[in-house]
C-alpha cells in the first residue's frame, strides 16, 4: 500500500478519480502516446493537511507531478485536488516525453551513489541539474504546443523565449545559458524552478521510497517504447498529424540496428588503408635495380606506415570499464590491419588534453581526467603532435563541442551511448554504452 493519506476519508478516491480523468484527456489529445500515458503508475503520497480544516494543502514543489525512471507518477494529494484536470493531463504527456526520450540516461548530471535529492526545487538540485531540466522541458514542450496544448504558467517554451523549435535538450542547454545570463544582468529570471523528478536527470528523490511504486522493469520499458514508436509510425502512415519531435524520435527508435563492431572495424580499416595505400620514395632501402644505373643508387618505393592517435574522453560521463573494453576493441582492429605490437599514442582529454601516452597494449593506457568535456582541445592537440598523425580515433559520448573545420588527419568518432552528436566531417560509429566483453573462443586460454 502507498502512504496516500488513508487517514483522510474520501480524499484518496477523489485524487484517483481526477488522475483517471486526466489520463483519458491526455490519451484523447495525443492518441499516439496513449499506451505510454496508461503505463504511468500513479503513486499517491502522504498529504500535508491544513491544521484547521483537515484538508490536503497543495505543495508547489509537486506541481509537475514528477515521475521516476520506473514510470511511477508521484501524486501529491493537495496538488492533484487543486489542479485542473486538463493541466494534470498536460503534465502526464510532459512526463511521458521525459521518459520515452530517455532524458535521465542523456543527462549530463551524474548522480552520487547513495545520495537522494530533496523534493524541493531550485538550488538543492544544483544549477546544472536545473538547467538540464529546463532544456529537456524545451525539447518536449514545443511538441505539446504543436498539438495546441497550452503550457502551464512558468514552464520553458522555446516559442515564448524566441528559441528555434525542434531542437534537442543538448542543443537548448547553451541557448538557455545565454538567455539566463542576459536576464540575470537585467534583474530577471528565465523561468520558475520546476522539478520533473528523476525521469529528467536520473537523480533519485527522497519521496520515491515512500510508496509501493515498483513501476516498469527494463524489458517492459523497452517493449513500451517499441509500442509507442509503432503507434506513431501507424499514425504517420494513415496521414495523421504527429509533431516533428515525436516523428523524429520514432524514426530513430525503429531504425534497424547496425552491428557496431563491424561498422567500427570498417571505418578504422578504411582510414588505415587510405594512408597505408600511399607510397613514397625512400633511400633507407636501395632499389633492387641499382645495377642498371651505372653506380647511381636510386630510391625504392615504400609504403607509408599509418600513424594513429586515440583521443579518449575522460570527463567522467563514460565509465572507465566501458572505455577500457572499447580501447581493447579499437587496438585489436588496428593490430589486425597495421600489424601486431605496434606503438600507439593515446591522449586523454576532459576540458583539456593530458600528456600523451605511448603504449603497445590498450591495458597500458592510464585513464586520466574528470570534470567537463571539450573534444575540440583533444582533437586539436592530437593533430598538432609530431610526427603528425594520419588517423585520429575519438572515444566519447558526444556531449561536447567539436572543431568547426575538418582537421588535417582522418577522424573516426566512436559515439558511446544513444545521446550526443558528431560533426559532419567525421566518420562515425555508434557504440552501446555498456560495451559487452567479447566472448572467448572455445578452447582458448
Summarize the structure in words.
The protein has 445 residues and is α/β, with parallel strands linked by helices. The protein has 2 domains: 244 residues, no CATH class; 166 residues, Rossmann fold (3-Layer(aba) Sandwich), CATH 3.40.50. The protein contains 14 helices and 12 strands. The strands form 4 sheets. The chain has a 6-stranded mixed sheet, with helices on both faces. Strands 1-4 form a two-stranded parallel sheet. Helix 4 crosses helix 6 and helix 12 crosses helix 13. The chain is elongated, with a radius of gyration of 27 Å. The N terminus and C terminus are likely disordered.
Radius of gyration: 27 Å
Strand content: 5-15%
Structural class designation? alpha/beta
DSSP, total strands: 12
Helical content, roughly?
25-40%
Mass-distribution shape? elongated
Give the count of helical stretches: 14
Short description:
The chain is of the alpha/beta class and 445 residues long. The chain has helices spanning 11-29, 34-39, 77-82, 85-100, 103-106, 127-146, 158-161, 169-185, 198-201, 218-237, 244-254, 260-276, 320-338, 375-383; strands spanning 41-44, 48-49, 56-57, 72-75, 279-286, 299-303, 308-313, 344-349, 357-359, 391-396, 410-416, 427-431.
Amino acid at each position: 500500500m502507498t502512504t496516500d493519506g488513508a487517514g483522510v476519508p474520501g480524499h484518496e478516491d477523489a485524487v484517483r478519480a481526477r488522475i483517471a480523468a486526466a489520463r483519458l484527456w491526455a490519451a484523447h489529445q495525443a492518441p499516439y502516446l496513449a499506451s505510454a500515458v496508461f503505463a504511468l503508475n500513479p503513486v499517491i503520497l502522504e498529504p500535508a493537511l491544513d491544521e484547521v480544516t483537515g484538508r490536503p494543502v497543495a505543495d508547489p514543489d509537486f506541481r509537475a507531478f514528477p515521475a521516476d525512471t520506473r514510470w511511477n507518477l508521484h501524486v501529491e494529494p493537495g496538488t492533484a485536488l487543486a489542479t485542473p484536470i486538463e493541466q494534470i493531463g498536460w503534465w502526464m504527456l510532459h512526463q511521458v516525453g521525459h521518459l520515452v526520450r530517455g532524458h535521465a540516461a542523456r543527462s549530463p548530471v551524474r548522480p552520487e551513489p547513495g545520495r537522494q535529492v530533496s523534493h524541493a526545487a531550485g538550488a538543492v538540485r544544483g544549477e546544472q541539474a536545473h538547467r538540464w531540466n529546463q532544456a529537456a522541458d524545451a525539447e518536449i514542450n514545443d511538441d505539446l504546443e504543436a498539438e495546441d496544448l497550452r503550457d502551464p504558467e512558468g514552464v520553458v517554451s522555446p516559442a515564448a523565449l524566441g528559441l528555434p523549435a525542434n531542437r534537442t535538450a543538448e542543443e537548448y542547454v547553451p541557448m538557455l545559458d545565454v538567455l539566463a545570463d542576459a536576464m540575470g544582468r537585467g534583474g530577471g529570471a528565465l523561468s520558475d524552478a520546476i522539478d520533473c523528478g528523476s525521469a529528467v536527470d536520473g537523480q533519485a528523490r527522497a519521496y520515491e521510497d515512500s510508496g509501493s511504486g515498483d513501476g516498469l522493469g527494463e524489458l517492459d520499458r523497452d517493449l513500451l517504447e517499441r509500442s509507442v514508436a509503432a503507434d506513431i509510425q501507424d499514425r504517420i502512415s494513415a496521414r495523421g498529424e504527429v509533431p516533428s519531435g515525436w516523428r523524429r524520435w520514432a524514426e530513430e527508435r525503429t531504425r534497424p540496428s547496425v552491428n557496431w563492431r563491424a561498422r567500427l572495424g570498417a571505418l578504422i580499416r578504411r582510414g588505415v588503408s587510405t594512408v597505408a595505400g600511399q607510397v613514397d620514395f625512400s633511400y633507407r632501402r636501395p632499389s633492387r635495380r641499382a645495377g642498371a644505373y651505372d653506380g647511381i643508387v636510386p630510391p625504392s618505393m615504400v609504403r607509408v606506415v599509418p600513424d594513429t592517435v586515440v583521443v579518449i574522453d575522460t570527463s567522467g560521463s563514460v565509465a572507465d570499464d566501458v572505455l577500457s573494453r572499447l580501447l581493447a576493441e579499437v587496438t585489436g582492429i588496428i593490430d589486425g590491419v597495421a600489424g601486431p605490437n605496434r606503438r600507439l599514442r593515446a591522449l586523454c582529454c576532459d576540458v583539456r588534453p593530458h600528456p600523451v601516452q605511448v603504449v603497445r597494449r590498450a591495458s597500458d593506457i592510464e585513464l586520466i581526467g574528470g570534470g567537463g568535456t571539450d573534444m575540440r582541445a583533444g582533437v586539436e592537440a592530437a593533430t598538432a603532435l609530431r610526427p603528425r598523425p594520419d588517423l585520429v580515433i575519438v572515444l566519447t559520448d558526444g556531449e561536447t563541442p567539436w572543431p568547426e573545420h575538418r582537421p588535417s588527419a582522418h577522424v573516426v568518432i566512436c559515439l558511446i551511448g544513444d545521446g550526443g552528436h558528431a560533426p559532419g566531417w567525421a566518420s562515425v560509429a555508434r557504440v552501446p554504452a555498456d560495451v559487452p566483453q567479447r566472448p572467448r573462443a572455445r578452447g582458448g586460454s
